[in-house]
Design brief:
heterodimer; A: 302 residues; Rossmann fold; 2 domains; six-stranded mixed beta sheet; four-stranded antiparallel beta sheet; 10 helices; B: 17 helices
C-alpha cells in the first residue's frame, strides 16, 4: 500500500438477499483528496460509505483506512467523521448540546471540547442559533448541524453522504463553501451525490457508480474527455442562408447545431462563413452526459 | 464507564425534555396512587365499625345488659370471646380492643365506687384515637345501665335491699360510715317505693341522674400489635404506582433505542469509538437511574403526604434497586420486539399491561381469585409489589426478601442479555 493512500478498497461486495448493492468495488483515495461518488439513488453509494464507516459488514472485500484493515477499530473511528444522508441529530437537544454529546463520545472534554464546538458552530454558521433546539431549525440548518456533528472531533477523513439533500440554495452554497474549506485544510473527503454540479465543483476525482459497479474513475475533465462525447455548437441564424451547404452540422429552420471535439474551431469557421448569426453558444459535455453515455440513462430520470 | 455515563446523561436529558413521556412516567402513576388510594380509604371509613371483643367474666344479667348496650352503638361491632382469644385478636390487628367485664360487675357496691376493677380495656396503643372514642362509649353504656336500674323503682328497691343486707354483714367498712350509708339507702328505698316510675324516667326536668353515681373502675392495658396488614390504603396503592412508573420508564427507554435507529443517530453512535456494551450499557444505566429516581421521588411524596414509612430503609432500598434492575432488563428485551417506535411502543405497553394485570398492578392480588394469584407468579410486577410491600408493611425479614429480590434481579439480567443478543443480531 502506498503511504499516501488514506482509503484503499478492494473488491468490496455487499448483498441484501438477492440484491447485490455493491459489487466488487475497488478504489483508492489519497490523503487530502476530495473523492466523489456520483450515481443515482440506489447505486450503492450509501452502502459503500456505511461499510467504510464500519456500520455495515461487507460480504467480501477489503477496506484499509490509514493503514488499518478494520474500520471498527477505535483508532480508525477516531479519524473518521460522517454526515449520514438521514439527519442524525437529537431534535430535543439544542445545537450546542448535540455537538457536546458527540464530542464527548470521541473523548474530547474541557477546553478543547469547547473550542471545537465554537469552531464547528462558526464553520457551519450556527453560532447564533447554538442554544436553540434542533427541532426549531430549518431543513438547511439541520443539514449544516448534521455536518458539524461529523466534524466536531476534528477527523482526518470525512464521509459526506449526500449532505445537500433537501436544503435551500443558501444552505447548499454554504455547505459547498465549507466542504471546500475543509478540503483546503487537507482533509480527505468522500462525497456522495447525485448532483453533477456538486461533483464537478468539489471533487478532485469522481467515480461514476451505478447498480453497485464503478463504471469510471478520473478527474472531471478526463471523464468528460473520455466519456462525454463532442461539444455542441449551437447558433441562431439572422435569416435563411443563401447557400446552406456552406454550413456544417444540422440546420433546422434557423437553428444550427454542430457536434465537434474542437468547438472553438467551429466557431471560427462559422464566423468566416459570411452568414449572419443572432446568437452562438457552445454546449460542452458534462458529467450528466458522461453518465448518460456510460449507462444509457440520465442521473435523475428514475 | 465515561462513555456509559455520557450516553446515560444524554438519554436522561432527552427524557426530561419529553413532557409527554414524563407524564406517563411520573404524573400518571401518582394519579393512579392518589385516585385508587382515595377510593379505598373512603370505602374503609364507611365500612368499618370498630370491632371490639367482649370478655364476660361476670356472667350476670347486668354484664349481658352492658354488652347489649354497647352493641347498640353503630360505631361498634361487639363480639364475645374468651380472654386469651381476645388478646390474640387485638394483637393480630383483627380487633381494635377488648373489654373484660370482671366478676362483681353490676353489684351495688361497684356501682357506688367499690374498690375492685370492674372493666379492663385492652387496646392497640397505635389506635389511641379509636380507643378514646371506645372509652366514651363504654361510659355511655355504663350510665345507661345505672339509669335503667335506678329509675325502675321495683328493681331498684330489690337492689337496695340486697345492698343494705350486704352492708349489715360487712365487717370491713367503718361502723359509722356503714351506718350513714345504711340510713341513706333505707331512705332511698322508701323514696323509690313512693315515687311514680314515669316521672323518674323523665329526665327533661333537668335533673342530672348521674350525679349520685360514680363511673366504673376501668383499667386499661396496652396490647402491642403484630402488624400484618397495611396501615392505610396508600400503602397498597403506592407500590402499585411505583410499578406503573417503572412500566412508563421501560416503555419510554425501549422506544428511545428504536428512535436512535429511525432518527439515524444510531449510525453516529456506532461510528463513535465506543463498544456495543457502552451503547447498550448507557441506555440501561439511564433507564435504571431514572427508574430508581422516580421510585424514590414517589416514595418521598408518599412519606411526606401520607406518612408511609418503612421499618427498614435498607430493605426498601434493595427492593427499589431490584425493581430497577428488573425493569431495565425488560426495557432492553422490549426494545428489540419491533423495528419502529410504534411497534415497540405498542408491544411494550401491551406486554406491560398484561404483566401488570396479572401481577396485581391494577387490582391488588388480595382481591383476586386463587387461580389469578397462582398465575401472578409469572409476572415480575407481582414480585416487585411484594418486595416493596415486604419492606413497607408486610414486615418481611431479609430471608423472606431473598425470593422476590432474586426473581426481580434474575428476570432483569436474563431479559437484558436476551435483548442485547437480539440487538446485536439485528444491528450487526
Amino acid at each position: 500500500m502506498r503511504t499516501n493512500t488514506m482509503i484503499q478498497v478492494e473488491n468490496l461486495t455487499k448483498r441484501f438477499g438477492d440484491l447485490t448493492a455493491v459489487d466488487a468495488v475497488s478504489f483508492n483515495i489519497e490523503r487530502g483528496e476530495s473523492y466523489g461518488f456520483l450515481g443515482p439513488n440506489g447505486a450503492g453509494k450509501s452502502t459503500t460509505i456505511n461499510m467504510l464507516a464500519g456500520v455495515l459488514e461487507p460480504d467480501s472485500g477489503e477496506i484499509v483506512i490509514n493503514g488499518a484493515s478494520d474500520p471498527t477499530r477505535s483508532e480508525v473511528r477516531r479519524i473518521l467523521g460522517i454526515a449520514p444522508q438521514a439527519l442524525a441529530l437529537y431534535e430535543e437537544l439544542n445545537a450546542e448540546e448535540n455537538l457536546f454529546f458527540f464530542g464527548k463520545l470521541y473523548g474530547l472534554c474541557g477546553k478543547s471540547l469547547k473550542e471545537r464546538i465554537e469552531l464547528t458552530l462558526d464553520l457551519v454558521g450556527l453560532t447564533e442559533r447554538r442554544r436553540d433546539r434542533v427541532k426549531t431549525f430549518s431543513g438547511g440548518m439541520q443539514r449544516r448541524l448534521n455536518l458539524a456533528c461529523g466534524m466536531v472531533h476534528d477527523p482526518q477523513v470525512l464521509l459526506l453522504d449526500e449532505p445537500t439533500v433537501g436544503v435551500d440554495p443558501q444552505s447548499r452554497n454554504l455547505i459547498f463553501e465549507k466542504v471546500a474549506q475543509l478540503k483546503s485544510e487537507g482533509r480527505t473527503i468522500l462525497y456522495t451525490t447525485h448532483y453533477m454540479e456538486e461533483a464537478e465543483r468539489l471533487c478532485d476525482r469522481v467515480a461514476i457508480i451505478d447498480h453497485g459497479h464503478i463504471l469510471a474513475v478520473d478527474t472531471v475533465e478526463n471523464l468528460i474527455t473520455a466519456h462525454g462525447g463532442p461539444s455542441i455548437v449551437k447558433a441562431q441564424l439572422a435569416g435563411p442562408p443563401a447557400d446552406p451547404s456552406v454550413l456544417p452540422g444540422e440546420l433546422n429552420g434557423l437553428s444550427l447545431a454542430v457536434e465537434s471535439n474542437e468547438p472553438m474551431a467551429v466557431l471560427a469557421d462559422l464566423n468566416s462563413s459570411g452568414v449572419r448569426f443572432v446568437t452562438m453558444q457552445i454546449e460542452r459535455p458534462n458529467l450528466e452526459t458522461v453518465f448518460l453515455n456510460l449507462t444509457g440513462r440520465k442521473l435523475r430520470d428514475q | 464507564m465515561r462513555s456509559l455515563l455520557i450516553i446515560a446523561m444524554k438519554d436522561l436529558r432527552l427524557l426530561i425534555r419529553d413532557r409527554f413521556g414524563i407524564f406517563w412516567v411520573l404524573a400518571f402513576p401518582l394519579m393512579m396512587a392518589l385516585f385508587f388510594g382515595a377510593i379505598f380509604s373512603s370505602g374503609s371509613e364507611n365500612r368499618a365499625a370498630m370491632r371490639i371483643i367482649a370478655v364476660d367474666k361476670a356472667s350476670t344479667a347486668e354484664s349481658s345488659q352492658f354488652i347489649a348496650q354497647l352493641d347498640r352503638s353503630s360505631a361498634l361491632d361487639i363480639q364475645t370471646s374468651g380472654e386469651d382469644s381476645a388478646r390474640m385478636l387485638v394483637r393480630t390487628g383483627k380487633a381494635v380492643a377488648y373489654i373484660i367485664i370482671h366478676p362483681g360487675f353490676g353489684s351495688m357496691e361497684n356501682m357506688f365506687g367499690g374498690s375492685d376493677t370492674t372493666l379492663t380495656i385492652g387496646m392497640d396503643p397505635s389506635r389511641s384515637a379509636e380507643v378514646g372514642y371506645l372509652q366514651g362509649l363504654v361510659m355511655e353504656a355504663w350510665f345507661s345501665l345505672i339509669q335503667e336500674r335506678l329509675f325502675d323503682p321495683a328493681r331498684s328497691q330489690k337492689y337496695l335491699t340486697d345492698f343494705i343486707d350486704q352492708l349489715d354483714n360487712d365487717t370491713i367498712m367503718d361502723k359509722r360510715q356503714r351506718s350513714v350509708l345504711t340510713d341513706f339507702l333505707g331512705d332511698l328505698r322508701q323514696f323509690m317505693g313512693q315515687v311514680d316510675s314515669g316521672a323518674l324516667a323523665d329526665t327533661s326536668a333537668g335533673v342530672d341522674e348521674n350525679r349520685f353515681v360514680m363511673g366504673p373502675r376501668v383499667r386499661t392495658e396496652e396490647v402491642t400489635r403484630k402488624r400484618i396488614g397495611p396501615r392505610s390504603s396508600w400503602e397498597i396503592t403506592f407500590p402499585q404506582a411505583l410499578m406503573w412508573a417503572l412500566i412508563g420508564c421501560t416503555a419510554a427507554f425501549a422506544i428511545s433505542i428504536v428512535t436512535e435507529k429511525t432518527r439515524g443517530t444510531l449510525i453516529r453512535l456506532r461510528l463513535a469509538p465506543i463498544t456495543r456494551v457502552h451503547l447498550l450499557g448507557g441506555k440501561g444505566l439511564a433507564c435504571f437511574l431514572f427508574s430508581i429516581t422516580v421510585c424514590t421521588g414517589l416514595l418521598l411524596f408518599a412519606k411526606i403526604v401520607f406518612g408511609i414509612s418503612t421499618p427498614d430503609l435498607l430493605m426498601l432500598a434493595l427492593a427499589v434497586l431490584a425493581c430497577g434492575v428488573c425493569f431495565t432488563g425488560l426495557m432492553m428485551l422490549i426494545s428489540v420486539l419491533g423495528k419502529t417506535e410504534q411497534a415497540v411502543g405498542g408491544a411494550g405497553w401491551a406486554i406491560m399491561l398484561i404483566l401488570s394485570m396479572t401481577g396485581g398492578g391494577m387490582v391488588p392480588l388480595m382481591f383476586m381469585p386463587d387461580w389469578m394469584v397462582t398465575l401472578s407468579h409469572i409476572s415480575p410486577v407481582k414480585w416487585g409489589i411484594l418486595a416493596l410491600e415486604g419492606a413497607i408493611w408486610r414486615g418481611f425479614n431479609y430471608d423472606e426478601m431473598i425470593l422476590p429480590l432474586s426473581i426481580l434481579c434474575g428476570v432483569g439480567i436474563v431479559s437484558f442479555a436476551v435483548g442485547a443478543v437480539v440487538f446485536r443480531r439485528v444491528h450487526g
